[in-house]
Amino acid sequence: xxxxxxxxxxxxxxxxxxxxxxxxxxxxxxxxxxxxxxxxxxxxxxxxxxxxxxxxxxxxxxxxxxxxxxxxxxxxxxxxxxxxxxxxxxxxxxxxxxxxxxxxxxxxxxxxxxxxxxxxxxxxxxxxxxxxxxxxxxxxxxxxxxxxxxxxxxxxxxxxxxxxxxxxxxxxxxxxxxxxxxxxxxxxxxxxxxxxxxxxxxxxxxxxxxxxxxxxxxxxxxxxxxxxxxxxxxxxxxxxxxxxxxxxxxxxxxxxxxxxxxxxxxxxxxxxxxxxxxxxxxxxxxxxxxxxx
Length: 293
What we know:
Helix 4 (122-136) packs antiparallel against helix 5, helix 7 runs parallel beside helix 10 (269-288) and helix 9 (240-258) packs antiparallel against helix 10. The chain is built from 10 helices and 6 strands; from the N terminus they run H-E-E-E-E-E-E-H-H-H-H-H-H-H-H-H. It has helices spanning 2-10, 90-98, 100-111, 122-136, 145-166, 173-196, 217-231, 233-236, 240-258, 269-288; strands at 13-21, 28-34, 43-46, 52-54, 71-72, 79-80. The protein starts with a helix and ends in a 5-residue tail after the last helix. The protein has a domain at 13-207.
């Protein structure tokens, strides 16, 4: 028992004793999970895009909770969040099986050859979220794929931001910026779905994140839509009129989050303060562009 405890105290993750069977290709493998506690995570600041940063641990080195969130089949690279793993319609499983080689070629083009039988790291973490976006493109509306693509896209952008720091010579900036742009599009679509009900967004409120540290839920969707719209405005709309329309719509949604400006248990002060600053910035920018029509 003492030896086992000592081993755990030196490791970040472990392999589940229960087998996971891929519903696409029937590959049997063991899911890797992160040990909890033990001083592995040292929380740092919260960024403007609601990411929780973690300091490098002297004992464990880099520890990334997002590395272990997604289930990935090491053979066919089918990827999903845990609750969607077995929830595949026959047509979805067939399409995912037929596109296995495309997923592998896509990954190799971006990150090189990878092996998901190995322990998760920053490269495999980034790859898992790229795969999630690809796989949820082929899922039906019943699993609410759009908000899951939004969460996956912004987390993937975070990974590539870290990869730029770790490997500056590899020039990952275009990939990161593309992923942020995709996240902006998916978050805008998620806001529309919240109003139309075309996907069961309500059923995944506990997964909206966007990070694993604090689930901001629908407030996070509203805030990130405004934040990403502002940051990538030029890429999201070509004309001044279209840009103004995007800004006005995002500001109106942000006003609902901002409300009276008072924090509560449901709306912590951190997101209220950031929403307040962003709301003021939106007001000034909209006025500079001619005001609301």
